[in-house]
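README: folding subset

This subset contains proteins for which both the sequence and a predicted structure token string are available. Records are stored as plain text. Below is the entry for Glycosyltransferase RgtA/B/C/D-like domain-containing protein (463 residues), shown exactly as it appears on disk.
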Amino acid sequence: MRRKILIGIIFTGLILRFIGLNQSFWLDEAAQVIESERVFAQQIDLASDFHPPLYHLLLHFWLKIGNGEIFSRLPEVIMGVVSIFLVYEITRLLKFSNFSAQLTAFLLAVNPFHIYYSQEVRPYMLFSFLSLLATRFFLTGNLIALAIVVSLLVYTNYFAFFLLLAFPAASLLSGYKKDLNKVLQSFFLAFLIFLPWLPSLMRQLEIGFGNGLPGWKSVVSVSPYKAIPLILAKFIFGKASIDNNFIYALVLMPSIIAFAASGFLAFKSKKYPVLFMLFFVPLISALTVSFFLPVLAPQRMIFLLPFFLMIIAGSADIWKKWGIFLSLAVVITSLFGLMLYYLNARFQREDWRSSVQYLKEDSYSIKSLVAFAFPEAFAPFIWYNRGILESRGYAQDFRVGQSDIRRLSLDLSGRNTVYYYSYLDNLTDPKNWIQRKINENGFQLKSIRDFPGVGFVYKYEKD
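--- output ---
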């Protein structure tokens, strides 16, 4: 019976992760696929992507089989589903009851944040999966396997180092102290393996924090003062949100209370001390570093989501019926966030596929031009366009300048149709120079199309 329940939970997680799997690639996914399709020798040339190379290498070989949206996302779906089983195993190793272990697995199976990143062609799910695998080997004392997985972790995501701080801390607790030296030896070996990549990391930091795109840091990271409530909100409600902040807070409040109450009960009863180390040590470490390096974002903390759910489900072992009630509050809130994600296009991925298809169907002239307020066309446009429509970027230094406008004027000569994507132009062209120059060259605005996530596509024609 226990096995049937667990299989049912895993199957539920699988079905939920296939819904909406055919969404358009958005900016980061398209850039990831384009980079991973490069020749093998270029897969470690990742100066502009703040990640180590393991995921790029794995995806490089996967894309040799197929590269459609569904096929490209299948590895993430598989890792997301296997994670449900790993969470069940880990909770049992942490001395949870079978009921609480199944409850934790169910919470992860229906969690909208985990589902979203189980459908994302980016390294986040690989990182979360390997984090669970490392935790399992740590708890079972399989330190050789732990060393191997830790080596993979540090080549997947730099936030792995925050997780690694938790294992020695947990080793100092009762039952794991004897393994501390071996754990440290495993980590030292992983660090030696990581050393050859260190110059590339320094290069990524140099480029990332010297990025000329104004306001970009606020896009890719959040203020450390806002980080904790935002991370908890995403862990519970997923990528969806509610425009009215007061109503949004009311919806989230029962789940926040459930987490706080569960944590307090576990701390007071001195249960699950290792679990507390696994969740709070990486969280506090990442938060501290974010005051100096603006790299904190909810998706980078997704490896902590399973431990977050374990703390909540663990209340069922401590507080019985009231603990189940706390977990039920989280389930209801998560299902509400999941429903919004499935049904509302603005919470899904940017619909570049439809925007490019619109241009292909609408553009009947070889004299048309697609313009962007960016150094070049954005990666999803390049992916879906496949060189059919001529495109140009007019923000060579991530800010539209006079030289860009002069080049635009030259490119407009002899054209009869111009399509302009407003995507990110609030950062790169706040004075709206590109559209003003298009108007000055005799083009009249004929239509505006709005695509979810992408924003407005303006069509200009010469009479």
